[in-house]
Amino acid sequence: MSIPAFGLGTFRLQGQMVIDSVSTGLELGYRVIDTAQIYENEAEVGEAIAASGVARDELFITSKIWVANFARDRLIDSLKESLQKLQTDYLDLTLIHWPSPEDQVSVEEFMGALLEAKQLGLTQQIGVSNFTIDLMKQAIAAVGAGNIATNQIELHPYLQNRKVVEFAQSQGIQITSYMTLAYGEVLKDPVIQQIADRLQATPAHVTLAWAMQLGYAVIPSSTKRANLASNLKACAMTLSDADMALIASLDRGQRLTSPKGIAPQWD
Asked: Which of 84, 104, 122, 190 could be bridged to 117 by S-S, CB 3.0 to 4.6 A?
């Protein structure tokens, strides 16, 4: 099984805002929804999905286990709570959201519990998020690379994370790119704007298409119907090798997310 290339993110969206975003997305044809326990919006996401009338087997729902729930006796219970909020019997993908701060819970313990959740049928696939090469090696040692569907990481033209990508791909672990548009920063980039103008597209299309063409899954979010509809067009876009090389040259190691006390020692 693999991760669908294009989905809808819900980070920072809560209450009616996330209900509207997910409802509109589903109406427009989105079928992949990404949430997390710490987003505190799983219940609203579940409400929007239930109201949409879209059949469960047409959807791909991802959530992420928060660091407070990593202990073996807590992880599965917390996942069951997420399922209840999302009004579903199973997730398609469940991720460890961040590594355990100061290794309070070992990688072996939380990956073992996550694998158990998969064996119980609570989730179809499991994976990790914000993992470095060393942490991925520990996760592989715990459950085997074949059980790790993806590593969801911050990845955009200004932070291309090539070492992590290379290692993950060498192990058959797919990359999911979050913040692919770098909070809108890359949309102002003259190189990306020039490519977009030439292709009569938007900078968002170009950036999302770039990531998907490299084999990454993307989960952009938006609260605006026009942007949600527009972003879908990235799925049909193919960039030339020259354009891909231009975007590759924009990497400057600019990381936007590194929460104190939780973020690992980045590669």
From this structure: 122
- The catalytic position among 30, 39, 158, 178 is 39
pLDDT, one tens digit per residue, over 4-43 is 999 999 999 999 999 999 999 999 999 999 999 999 999 9
Give the residue from 205, 150, 203, 155 showing the smallest Cα distance to 178: 155
CATH 3.20.20.100 correct for 8-183+215-223: yes
| Closest to 151 (Cα-Cα) out of 25, 142, 140 | 140
30 part of the active site: no
Q: Is the pTM of this model over 0.85?
A: yes
pLDDT digits (tens, 9 = 90+) for 171-229: 999 999 999 999 999 999 999 999 999 999 999 999 999 999 999 999 999 999 999 99
